[in-house]
Amino acid sequence: MVNGPEDLTHVLDADRWDAIDWRACEEEVRRLRSRIFKAVQEQDWPTVRNLQKLMLRSRSNTLLSVRQVTQRNAGRRTAGIDGEVALTSAARADVAVRVHSTIRTWKPRAVKRVHIPKAGDRKKLRPLGIPVLMDRCHQARVRNALEPEWEARFEPRSYGFRPGRGCHDAIEAIFNTCRGRSAKRVWVLDADLAAAFDRIDHSHLLSMLGGFPGRGLIADWLKAGVFEPGKGFAPTEEGTPQGGVISPLLLNVALHGLEEAAGVRYGPSAPMPVRRDRAARS
């Protein structure tokens, strides 16, 4: 049951969901991610695209994606516009079967717009877009194919929404750069991109994705629209919903190159990019 495009209908039910060899699934996905990462470093783009296609039809990827969305993510109890959640083994097995059988045919649905208080300022609200459960599972699948490519391409000192990285890594990098009497950099620019998720230009983002085999599905997610209780449906002409599984990665892809555009240059002493797919550990 580890890998392959075959239908899951006759090999997966509630009992078998609990008996899945998750370690074998994780190893299969980790191996594929590492191979994609390495092929990008070697600029072997035909191999990159073939491996990404293999990831997109991987049964292990489907199973892990459904498990992540329905068992591990904080929003697993939050439903999209269809009201569906999967909190039992039987429901998760059913979702996995449906996700895998619609790899080539899935049509994204509108996200549910909700507003929650902003961190640090409870009086202000920020909009979230909650995709339906099936969309979140498909987004997790696609992310596993796309993320290792961009982990090999991102700037070495970007830390936001990166697997295996966080705020403390950025703080440590700033400290190491600015410490000591001989430090050449002694100030830090603190800036904020207002409504970054909501303002992503779709054409620019899709052009950045190039020949990624899941590009068409991502385009459909971007254009799926939003439904807000009391206001009805509205189309989406820009942005990606803050609340989508793949949205943080898409934001980073859209922002890639910002350092170069701002004039940042790395000399010989600058830290080199990570040489392995750190996402495989997260």
Give the beta-strand count: 4
Largest sheet: 4 strands, mixed
Order of strands across the main sheet: 2-1-3-4
Q: How far is the first residue's CA from the last residue's CA?
A: 23 Å
3D architecture notes:
The chain is an alpha+beta fold and 282 residues long. 44% of the residues lie in helices and 9% in strands. It is built from eleven helices and four strands, in the order αααααββααααββαα. The chain has helices at residues 14-19, 22-41, 45-56, 59-72, 89-101, 133-151, 167-178, 202-209, 215-222, 247-255, 258-261, and strands at residues 111-118, 121-130, 226-228, 232-234. Strands 2-1-3-4 form a four-stranded mixed beta sheet, with no helix packed on it. The two termini are 23 Å apart. Mean pLDDT is 88; it is low at 269-282.
Question: SSE layout and pairings?
Answer:
Elements: H1 14-19, H2 22-41, H3 45-56, H4 59-72, H5 89-101, E1 111-118, E2 121-130, H6 133-151, H7 167-178, H8 202-209, H9 215-222, E3 226-228, E4 232-234, H10 247-255, H11 258-261
Parallel strand pairs: 1-3
Antiparallel strand pairs: 1-2, 3-4
Helix pairs in contact: 2-3, 2-4, 2-6, 3-6, 4-5, 4-6, 8-10
Salient structural properties:
282 residues, 4-stranded mixed sheet, 44% helix, disordered C terminus
Short description:
The chain is α+β, with helices and mostly antiparallel strands. It contains 11 helices and 4 strands; from the N terminus they run αααααββααααββαα. It has a 4-stranded mixed beta sheet, with no helix packed on it.
